[in-house]
Amino acid sequence: MISVEDANKIIAFLSAAYMATEDPQARDEFHRLANELRKASGQPTQ
After folding, report:
1. Cα 5 to chain center, whole Å?
2. Which superkingdom does the taxonomy of this entry point to (predicted)?
């Protein structure tokens, strides 16, 4: 399990990558990865 704080730090990087691309497949993957981190840290998915 990962801490909420650590998960949110990584999610911030994924969010920046999401915003830096317009490729729908890349955005879907960044979103999926962020949700996996949320699940692993006990946070609700988005």
Report:
1. 13
2. Bacteria
- Burial-class residue 18 by CB neighbours within 10 Å (0-12, 13-18, 19+): middle
pLDDT, tens digit, for every residue of 1-46? 899 999 999 999 999 999 999 999 999 999 999 999 999 999 999 9
Which residues are within 8 A (CB) of 26 and not within 5 positions of it... i.e. 6 or more apart?
A: 17, 18
Residues in the chain: 46
How far, in Å, are 23, 30 from residue 14 at the CA level? 14, 6
Vertex 28 angle, CA 42 and 3, to 5°: 20
